[in-house]
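Researcher: I'd like a structural prediction for the single chain below. Treat it as a standalone chain; there are no partners to consider.
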Amino acid sequence: MTTTTLHPVLSDVFWRAEANQIWVKRLVLLVTGVAALWLSAKIQIATVAVPVTLQMLVIMVIGAAYGPRLAAATVASYIVLGMQGLPVFAGTPEKGIGMAYVMGPTGGYILGFLIAAYAVGLLARAGWDRSPIKMAAAMGVGILCVYVPGVIWLCAGFSLLGGGAEGAFTGYGWANWYAYGVKTFIWVDALKLVLAVIAFPTLWRLVGNARL
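Model: Treating it as a single chain, here is the predicted structure.
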């Protein structure tokens, strides 16, 4: 029987909390992560149908630095705030707020953020953030976790849920999957993630292993 070795993530190393302070640490990291996602959504280039933002980079950093559970909780909290009507998503409130926005063209990418944060966090816990090659692979997994549900939703839209509500997003059609769902921002996202691929292994070499 084999077991998977679990490694510390950067948040474990940079902030060593006592047992009675662990929830304070988690709360502070969660709030910080939500604020970073909110800010990164507002730094954008308006494109059709999905804007180019810094969120992909922030999602990957949160996943790798927080680990799977805290990263997923952070992204889920961000999504819930948006669903409740706070203008935390890109293009809000101009393009709608709350569930109306989530059911729009970017809904699949928002779901993908949650999946990606958890997946990258799992890989970081397995030690993939310690080397550039493995970190690049983790980032590749994260990109797929965002783009797959994002493109599917963008193409099929509300019809995925059997919906036909008036004004609901019904998709751009599969013929446009690359033009609308990938082409506009894949290279920008790839360049942003290069930063994470370089930064995380470098941070571990500089301070991580020295403090374990």
